[in-house]
Amino acid sequence: MRKPYLAGNWKMHKTAAEAAAFAAELRSALDRSPYTVMVAPPFTALQAVAEALSGSSILLGAQNMCSEESGAHTGEVSVLMLKDLGVSVVILGHSERRHTYGETDELISAKVQLALKHGLNVILCVGETLEEREAGHVNHVVESQLELGLSGVSAAQLQQVVIAYEPVWAIGTGKTATPEDADSVHEVIRAKLAALYSKSAADAMVIQYGGSVKPDNIAGLMAKPNIDGALVGGASLKPESFIPIAQFDRA
Ligand code: PGA
């Protein structure tokens, strides 16, 4: 049985003080959640949020990391620095990293392998653009992003990985994929994981949906057999929207 996993990606929002105050509010509402709950503040707020969440069940995530451990990489943040702050999860391959900052599958794969080597859990994001969807390439795009992003990842390491399906056209646009559309892509993802690893490994994998998830659409998404969680952007920034998402009622 896959445990629902609700994650908030705060992107480039909140100062350290704002983030810590918000984390404290989330902690009082969600600390004993039966679901897995994670928040990913910006790098500059990780320390403050780590302190606010210390000893709670809410996981601390980072939104990105460097593909190298250390060295001359101006502006980058190392896996070792994240671990030092108590980060346990890192989001990799987010569409904003792929499409705005030009990250390739090869770079994402190097990051995935480095994170896993250091014992971080990974949320690997995949998803097609509107153009790719309209050209009928959804399955091909997500299958290839999965195969390349997971290259070099062993079956044992796969247990540290969660996949997030985020259709690019649904991110921050208010357009959510219907639960049926999302579920059918999640099924393709699970089948690809079965082909790359095994059916039992694929059945155990948590696959999150991301893209305009809100309190009023989370239950419908989570009712689908292949949707196991959500990676939430805009609606993760306020307690009145993230708390109900993270406490959705199971159908
Ligand atoms: P959104 O972002 O919920 O604002 O659409 C999702 C994401 O980018 O993870």
Hetero compounds: 2-phosphoglycolic acid
**What is the percent of helical residues?**
40-55%
Which CATH architecture? Answer: Alpha-Beta Barrel
The end-to-end span amounts to 15 Å
Annotation, overall tally of beta strands: 8
Structure notes:
With 251 residues, the protein is of the alpha/beta class. The protein has one domain: TIM Barrel (Alpha-Beta Barrel). The protein contains 12 helices and 8 strands. It has helices spanning 16-30, 46-53, 79-84, 95-99, 105-117, 130-134, 138-149, 155-158, 179-196, 199-204, 218-222, 239-246; strands at residues 5-9, 36-40, 59-62, 89-92, 121-126, 161-165, 207-210, 229-232. The protein has an 8-stranded parallel barrel, surrounded by 5 helices. It binds 2-phosphoglycolic acid. Residues 9, 166, 171-172, 210-213, 231-235 line the site of 2-phosphoglycolic acid.
Short summary:
This protein is α/β, with parallel strands linked by helices. The protein is built from twelve helices and eight strands.
Outline the secondary-structure elements:
Blueprint: E1 5-9, H1 16-30, E2 36-40, H2 46-53, E3 59-62, H3 79-84, E4 89-92, H4 95-99, H5 105-117, E5 121-126, H6 130-134, H7 138-149, H8 155-158, E6 161-165, H9 179-196, H10 199-204, E7 207-210, H11 218-222, E8 229-232, H12 239-246
Parallel strand pairs: 1-2, 1-8, 2-3, 3-4, 4-5, 5-6, 6-7, 7-8
Helix pairs in contact: 1-2, 1-12, 7-9
The structure holds 2-phosphoglycolic acid.
Residues 9, 166, 171-172, 210-213, 231-235 line the site of 2-phosphoglycolic acid.
